[in-house]
Each structure stands twice: as C-alpha cells, then as structure tokens.
Design a protein that fits this description.
With 94 residues, this protein is α+β, with helices and mostly antiparallel strands. Helix content is 21%, strand content 43%. Strands 1-2-8-5-4-3 form a 6-stranded mixed sheet. Strands 6-7 form a two-stranded antiparallel ribbon. The radius of gyration is 13 Å and the shape is globular.
C-alpha cells in the first residue's frame, strides 16, 4: 500500500509499505505511529539537507513514553516522467 500526504508547501509525498517496514524494523517504537509520521510531513518543520539538495528533513515534537521528544522524517524529492516523485526514505524518533 502507498499512502500520500501533502506537506505545508503543497508537495505530495508518499510512504510505501516497504519503507514503513524499514522504519519499524530499525525503530520499533514507531510501530503503531504510521499516522503520526505522516502528520510530521503534513505539518512539521522542514529543512533541506546541506549536502544533498533533493533531501529534506521534516520534524515535529511529540510526547513519547520514553526519552524521545521529536519525530523526524526524511524525504527525497525527485522527478519521474515529468511528474514529482517525492517519497519517504526513513523516519525515526529523536
């Protein structure tokens, strides 16, 4: 399955099941937080990677029952067949 969300700048960004499995395998504390990760992209702060202009970090504070205070999602922006192809690479708590 592929879920799409629009960020505050009007960009459509998608998250695939394959990427979600990657995320929860590395960060099991996000296992039931897929909707939360999508909300980070929808309304979180965005900053561009200084070393790779097509890579962006979206961050948003969340209350976790642990030491983590923020979720960060990493999104890659690209074009495919003259259409935007913006997708989540990974996400993690910080």
């Amino acid at each position: 399955m592929r879920e799409e969300v629009q960020d505050r700048f009007g960009n459509i960004i998608y998250l695939t099941d394959e990427r979600w499995r990657h995320i929860v395998k590395a960060h099991p504390q996000l296992n039931s937080k897929r909707a939360v990760v999508l909300s980070v992209i929808r309304s979180g702060k965005r900053r561009r990677d200084p070393g790779l202009s097509d890579k962006y970090f979206y961050t948003k504070p969340f209350a976790f029952p642990s030491r983590f205070k923020v979720i960060e999602a990493v999104v890659f922006f690209s074009w495919q067949n003259n259409q935007p192809n913006n997708f989540v690479i990974t996400a993690y708590p910080k």
